[in-house]
Amino acid sequence: VLIDWMDSINLLAERSPVLYKQLGTLVPTRFRKHARTWWHTLPSQRKHAAMVNWDTLKDEISGFFMNRAWQDRQKLRAKECRYRDSHAPREKPSEYFMRKHKMLLVAEDYTDSELIIAIMEGAPKHWNTVIDTSILPDAHALLEKIVYHEDSLTHSPAAVHDQYYALERRLR
Fold first, then answer.
1. Whole-model pTM?
2. How many CB atoms lie within 10 A of CB 3?
3. Tens of pLDDT along 145-168?
4. Which of 49, 88, 127, 135 gives 123 a disulfide partner, CB atoms 3.0 to 4.6 angstroms apart?
C-alpha cells in the first residue's frame, strides 16, 4: 500500500517542476492516522527540511516507514510469494507475474535474469515445460509468454488428468 501511494505521488511529481516542489508542502496535509501522528512528532526544523520538495519529503517518509525491518519483511514476502498462494488463490498466471515482479522490485535490485528465475521459482513446475526461459531477453518477455500461454499455465497436467478420471468415474 505504501509503495502504491508513493508511486502515485511520483507520477504527480513528474508532471512539472512546480508541482514537484509543491508536493513537499502539500502531501503532509493529507497524512492520516499513523502517518499524521508521526509527522506531528517531528521537530519543526526537520519538517521544514523535509518540505523542500517531493524528494526531500519522500526521503523522510522512507527513512521512517521503509526502514531496515520493513525491507527485510519485503524480501521475505517476495521470496515466499507463490502462484495461487493464500494471498491470491484465484489469480491468473499474468496476475501472479505482476504481483511477484512488484514484490521483487520493492525488495531489492535484480537483473532481468534474476527476476525471471525468482518468478519461475514460485510458479508450478509444469510452467517450465511450456515456457523456455533460457531464450527470454528480459522479464517483460516472460510476461508476454505467460499471457500468450495463460490457458496452458492455468491448468496443470496433473489437474487435467485428475479431472478427466473424475469425469470418467461419474459417467460410469
1. 0.70
2. 13
3. 999 999 989 986 655 555 555 667
4. 127
